[in-house]
């Protein structure tokens, strides 16, 4: 069996049972921005793809989750409250909302989180550190924890951005206080079950992987280290912690600095049963790590390191190749965009191709589905379908959905979702549903 299929099978044993075409949490069913949807269109009609509905939303960066035909969006009432909005996937009709007080303003205002949907409950973590659990049937708050107050945690910069992780009867989040990195709560009561010692800060999210045959919570963080040499990232020197924890107890299983993230944002990605891929901005670059069992837990070795990386979103892996957005801060001035763009790497780290500024894509998001890369341009919101091939950049279709073609960065950085052939993507004021099904496009 192909290694990527082995990975999907292993992850499937760990995750809640949902239909294959749902998107119940951050990065989709397998935590890798990959969908099993097939039968998708590979070209757009002259007027663009069908957009069955579009709604106004508040500013922000929170993507959506989808389960049971319902779309869950983290929105904000600016300066006042976090807002959970639940919509019909078919029509965009607002089915119900839940409001939770969260006064204040964040740098880069608006939402951050992607909700995590379980069969009966939904979990949401706001930018000010409020973790809430809402009953899906009653539309009522079940419990709430204020991570900032209860754990004496400071804003990690730009607010808390992590997505809650559910494992069995636990929900796992990252307060990132001086003495507490991760905490697991009973997901029904909100009672604390375990916590781990502090290990710096992060904008990455805890992930659930099977490694060495065992489920593990994997988290990437960085702690300031004034004894380390300064880097050219423009940030203080840090020591990176890529660590694995036993999910029911929080026991530290391993900790490595084999990948150096100056400012962790993208999550690690499981490639197969012995490799992790990591990417990051701020001159962190992209690395493939091989892991194996050692005397003191897993041991890691670097297979390759490429100097370019993705500042916000994960890369995707298919056909023995990685597809990554090279979009660090220093690539965003127009004079430097030729150094970035979408790139394809092989398993040895060799660059097969890179788009540079034609197109650049900004800090856009990407989903792998049906042999295609579905990409939203982070500058303009332009939607592009690209064939996932190492033979060069092969664009299949393009549509300007938001009408912003002035080449300014309109901050369309939120992750997308794909469920039942419907793509959900947003700008700073609009959420759109795009129907990518061949059956409804007549092709």
The oligomeric state of the chains shown is: single chain
Instruction: Compute the number of helices.
Output: 3
CATH topology: Methanol Dehydrogenase, Chain A
Q: What proportion of the residues is helical, as a percent range?
A: under 10%
What is the fourth-level CATH superfamily?
A: Quinoprotein alcohol dehydrogenase-like superfamily
Spatial shape: globular
Structure description:
- With 443 residues, the chain is mostly beta strands.
- The protein has a single domain, classed as Quinoprotein alcohol dehydrogenase-like superfamily (Methanol Dehydrogenase, Chain A), CATH 2.140.10.10.
- Helix content is 5%, strand content 42%.
- The chain has 3 helices and 33 strands.
- The strands form 8 sheets. It has a 5-stranded mixed β-sheet with strand order 1-27-28-29-30, with no helix packed on it. It has a 4-stranded antiparallel β-sheet with strand order 2-33-32-31, with no helix packed on it.
SSE order and pairing:
Elements: H1 3-14, E1 34-35, E2 53-56, E3 64-67, E4 70-77, E5 79-88, E6 94-104, E7 116-117, E8 121-125, E9 130-135, E10 140-146, H2 147-150, E11 165-167, E12 170-173, E13 183-186, E14 192-195, E15 207-211, E16 214-224, E17 238-245, E18 252-256, E19 269-272, E20 275-280, E21 285-294, E22 297-306, E23 316-318, E24 321-326, E25 341-346, E26 351-354, E27 365-369, E28 372-376, E29 383-387, E30 395-399, E31 417-419, E32 422-426, E33 430-435, H3 438-441
Parallel strand pairs: 1-27
Antiparallel strand pairs: 2-33, 3-4, 4-5, 5-6, 7-8, 8-9, 9-10, 11-12, 12-13, 13-14, 15-16, 16-17, 17-18, 19-20, 20-21, 21-22, 23-24, 24-25, 25-26, 27-28, 28-29, 29-30, 31-32, 32-33
